Each structure stands twice: as structure tokens, then as C-alpha cells.
Input
Amino acid sequence: MQQAFIDTGAVQCGYCTPGYIISVKALLDRTTKPTAEDIEEAVSGNICRCTGYNKIVDAIHLAADQNRREGLSHGQS
Amino acid sequence: MAKAELKIIGSSPARMGGVERVIGKGVYGIDLMLKDQLHGAILRSQYAHAKIVSIDTSEAKKIPGVHAVVTAADAPERALRPQLYRPPYSRARQSSLHGRPGRRRRRGIAGHRQAGAQKIKVVYEPLPVAHRSGRSDQAGCTDLARRHAAAENYSRRRRS
Output
């Protein structure tokens, strides 16, 4: 998930990033395939003044996709 | 210059410092501790839109270790600028946005600075609140809408 933030450009100054990481971890523990609404709700308590949020949403989708792929490759659903 | 000599231009370098930031190891100004440094705390408005009726800093100034309590009254030449783009200290009489710095104080001991800021007594007169931009004129916030427009004009002038 943290690599996904780096790879999508969701990290700029980075001040808000640890908070996002924790919120997204909680989200992805709850659901493996979050909708756009799930994501918006999950990070509604986090403020980022650099990115404009789009990159962060991209990072969350990427992290969820990667988690699902890893889960499948390990025989989990 | 031959194209082969360009090593940076045209490449797509990896994000530098990304790992530190995503694992919470980033170092920011607030992390720096120098000998005898002063610490500041900002007392923010508890209202989204309110008139500041009065400010009493006397109790805060009495706390040992407090070096200064700074309000708009200390910088009257700055306090009348539109505050959306370059917040001055505090508006002399109004705070318009929730979380806008109302006042600032400094003290020698970091752990106690916020407690000291709470000693500043501010009396507010709450005013109607615009929850979304563009609706400020509908919520009885004509004053807020006017100042938003003024700030935009101010910003445009600065850019041109």
C-alpha cells in the first residue's frame, strides 16, 4: 500500500501521508474492493493540501488491486 | 549537445524521499528542537463566522515562560488585507473561516504552549455560516461573499 502511494505520485510533501496510510489500512481491512464512495468516506477525516486527492484515490485503488492479486496468488479470496 | 549526453532530461526518475514519507519518518520543521528555541501556539476560532467582540490576553501574559502574545493589534498595517491568500495575524474584528488562526502566543516550553493559548479569553459574536462556496450570499453572509470577491480581485492584481 505504501509503495502504491509512492508509485502513483500520491506523496508530495508527505505531511498528511501517515494519516492516509492508517485510514486506508483500516479501509482495506474492512473491504477488499472499495467503491469510490467507500474511499471518499474512509479518508474524509484526512486533509491533503498538496495533491488535490486524485492521486491518493488512484493509490488506494492500486493498493486494493494489488492486495486482491496477492490474496488470489496465495489461494485466499 | 548530443542527445546521448542527456542523463536527467527525458528520464522518469523515481520519487525521492517517498519511502521516508510513507513510513512516517519524514522530518518537518516542527520536529526540529534547538537550544532555547521559542515555541508558538495558535488559538483558533471556534466559530466558522463570527465577530470578535474582545480579546483579553492578560492571563496568558502572566504565565511564566510566556515571551509574547501577538494579536492583530500588534500589526494594524497588515490586519486589513484580504486574508484568503495571505493570512495576516488575525482580522482586527472578524474571523470568517473555521480554523483560521485567531491569535498566536509564544512560550519557552513546548508542552505547555497550547495550555497557555487557552488562557487567552476571546468573546465572539457568532454570525451566519456559509457551508459551501457560492452560497454565501444565500445564507445571510453578504459580508463574507463581498470579502471573497475582494480577495479574488486582490489575488488577480498581485498576479498581473
Remarks:
- Residues 4 and 62 of chain A are 6 Å apart (CA to CA).
- The helical segments of chain A are 2-7, 17-30, 36-42, 54-73.
